[in-house]
Every structure is written in structure tokens, then in C-alpha cells.
Amino acid sequence: MDIKKNDDIKLYIDNMTNEGSAVGHFNGVAVFVRGAVTGDEIVAHIIKTSKRYCIGIVKDILKKSPSRIKSDCPVSSRCGGCSFREMTYDEELRFKKSRVEDALKRIGHLDVPVCDIIKAEKTERYRNKAQYPVSICDGELIAGFYAYKSHRIVPCGDCRLQPPEFNECLCAFARWVEKSGVTSYDESSGRGLLRHIYLRRTSLGEIMACAVTNGSDLPESQMLIDELRKIDGVSSICQNINTQNSNVILGVTTKVLWGSETVTDTLLGKRFEISPNSFYQVNHDQCERLYQKAAEYAELTGSETLVDLYCGAGTIGLTMADSASQIYGIEIVEQAVENAKSNAKLNGITNAEYICGDAQYGAGILKKRKIKADVVVLDPPRKGCSFDLLCTVCDIAPQRIVYVSCDCATLARDLAILGEKGYTAQQITPVDMFPRTPHIESVALVTRDVY
Asked: How many Å apart are CA 177 and CA 192, to the nearest integer?
């Protein structure tokens, strides 16, 4: 390799990676650079080399890309969140659609039509949830987000993706920390109390504030309650207890310190109660557009049985319940299942039944009960579906599968497996749920082959 550490090289940026890093090539070697934009001509300072690639940082911009804009966030260059803060939104959308197309062809070996991406009307202040890692030094609270590929916290109280009320909540936590003498959790020793600050805000303005702690005691808890209650909209103050030595944010046990154990939101005319452990899409407006597309692909007429795997608090299935004969939801998180049952009751929906267990277990129960689904909705975590689950879904033999995915790579893999089982992906629509970040959601229509 001609490149050595500490070299400065001229580099043309010709693409972006799935994680939002820019990439260029020097004498055939890929060079990855954070903070550059496709079309930039830069001087890259090399900080790491390997046999197959190099990593650099931007030392100088020789010629700006037409897609480059000035970042409006003072910490975007250090925070690991907004990879596209210096890129036009149009270029961001083009890149995200191309990512989906590339994954389908390269990983799934599929030729599936990819529709225009459903763009976000709001690219700022759209998140309804934040999980802040914290550090406390000499009684001062440091809260923000991790730097790229590290556990080093970049302080960022007023993140431009979060509602402004979240910064008010952080300030309330900071006042409590200063007066209470609370310590922060240390991963290496397993000691210290405060691990994360977890916040939710619904479209109705209700705010849940949750202290995630390494233990059940919470010093001066009334002081924290008093500080948080000063903030307009706070209706739930909780303590989540997580004593596990892991990077999982929430523990199993949550105690209500004040107010309600849930917050309420609305989606497509339905009301939903959400607990700290419930999965709930972080972008309300784009979530409605995603669910509308999913309902369009489901093509329910009122007589169908719909199985909602990975149902969370029941949101996808319940928004389609008026158009289905029967809904079966399956979810492994017990609290989320209880939320789903409550949400069905809250909306007067009587045609929904819920099973607590992983998707494979629940699908197996439906198979044993000889329930034949007309439509299956899949909304798995980033790792996608297991091979066994996909086999069980095919055994249930739905006419249509609506697959909602937060990772186009695992989506492509799973669609290829379904193709081998007699199901064909007809169309995919990307939805930009997470503007200014590299993440992209997609919803796919898959139908059973007719012979």
C-alpha cells in the first residue's frame, strides 16, 4: 500500500457508506472519511491504515460538492448522530434510495421496483424519544450522545432532532444531580447510580421523564419530581432499574415516581398508551405515512385475518383493525403486550388478540391452532427475521406479506429467502423516518406465487 499513517492525500469523494462516512479511492485503495460529502475534493489526513482500506479526517476542502451545505449544529462534527448535517436533503434522499436498490441487487440478487422515497416534511425536531448517556463530574451533569464508534459523550442538551422540552428536562436533571450528590454509572467498575436519562414526548404534548439507574434507591427523588413538574407537559416521571453489566439501556423493572405509568399518543385516528419499554416509532408524522403505505399494501377489505408479528404496543395492527376481520398480535415484551391490549380496549377494538412470546413462538402457536392468515405484517428489529420464522410464516400461507424494515441489508436477505419459499417481492417503498442520519426505513409488498 502506498499510503502511510499521517500522510496527506488529495481525494475525490465518490460515495457514502451505510454508516454515513464518505468514501474515496486513492490508487485503488478505499479511504473512509467522516464529514465529507459526495462530490467533495479534499485533502485527507490519514489516521489509520490496513491492508484493504484507510481511514482519514478532512484536513482541507479543495473544492466543495454542489451538495455541501453548512452545518447548523455546533457539535455535528463530533457527535455520532447526524452524518448528513452538511449535505442537502435532496442528496440525502437520493443516497438513501440508492442504498435500498443496491442492497436488493447485491445482497438479495433481486430486481424489485423501488418507489420514490417518502420524504419528511420536517427534518428538525422530529424525534419523540431520546436516550441520553450521562456522566457526572464534580456534581455537574454531562448528557448528550456518543461520538462515532465510541463511548465518549459529546455534550448536546439542545439537539436539533429533539423537541426543545427535552433540553428543559435535562436542565431539571442537572439541578437535581448538583444538589443530590448522585453519581454516574461506570461501565468498567459497574459502580455508580445514574446510567441514562430517557425521555418521550407525544404529539399530544405529554412528556415521560425516566431516570435509568443501577439500583433501586434514588436519592432526593422528591427534588427530582419537583424540578421536572415545573416543565409544561410532563405527565409521567419514572425510574427504570437496570443492574445488568451490559449496554442494554432499559432494565425490566420500572417504578412510577409521579403521574401516569404511560403517555398517550394518536396515530391515524387511534389512541395509544406507551410505556418506557414499548417499541414506538420515533418520528410521529413519518410513522403515519409508513403505516398508510403498509395499509395500502395489505389491501384489507374487511374479511381478512391479519397477523402482526413484532407488534409492540399494537400500533400497526390496530390502525388497520377497522378493515380486518381479525387481528393477531405477537410481541416478546410483556409490558408492550399489556399496552397493546389496553390500546385495543381504549379504541373500542374487539377483533384483536395478543400473544406474549417471540415471533417464532407466536407464529408456531397460530400454526398449531390452524389459523390461516390472509395478511402477515413483519416489523422485525435490525437483525431481521430468522430463517425458521420465515419458514413458519410461509406455513401460515398468507396471500400477502407486508414487511416493514429498518435495515435494507437484512430486508434483501429475507426477501431472497421468501423468494425461495414461493413468495415474490412486488414493490418496495423507502420512508425517511430519520432525516439527517444514515438510517432508512422501508416497507415491502410480498405476495404468494400462484401456480
From this structure: 13
> CB under 8 Å to 310, separation ≥6 — which residues?
279, 330, 331, 359, 378, 379, 380, 381
Total Cβ atoms within 10 A of residue 360:
18
Catalytic site includes residue 406:
yes
Report the C-alpha gap between 351 and 302 in whole angstroms.
Answer: 11
6, 43 contact by CB (below 8 A)? no
Instruction: Enter the DSSP assignment of 118.
Output: B
Q: Find the mean pLDDT for residues 423-443.
A: 97
Instruction: Summarize the confidence of residues 403-428 as an average pLDDT.
Output: 97
| Residues contacting 337, CB < 8 A, separation 6+ | 329, 331, 354, 355, 356
Place of cell 447485491: 106
Nearest to 187 by CA among 240, 245, 254: 245
Q: How far is CA 439 from CA 82, 136, 428, 442, in A?
A: 10, 30, 16, 10
pLDDT for position 147 = 86
3-state secondary structure 58-106: EEEEEECCCCECCCCCCCCCCECCCCCCCECHHHHHHHHHHHHHHHHHH
pLDDT(1) > 90: no
Q: What is the pLDDT of residues 81-139, one digit of tens each?
A: 888 999 999 999 999 999 999 999 999 999 999 999 999 999 999 999 999 999 999 99
Task: Summarize the confidence of residues 443-447 as an average pLDDT.
Answer: 98
- Report the share of the chain in percent with pLDDT over 70: 100
Distance CA 144, CA 44 (A): 28
Q: Which of 169, 210, 394, 406 is catalytic?
A: 406
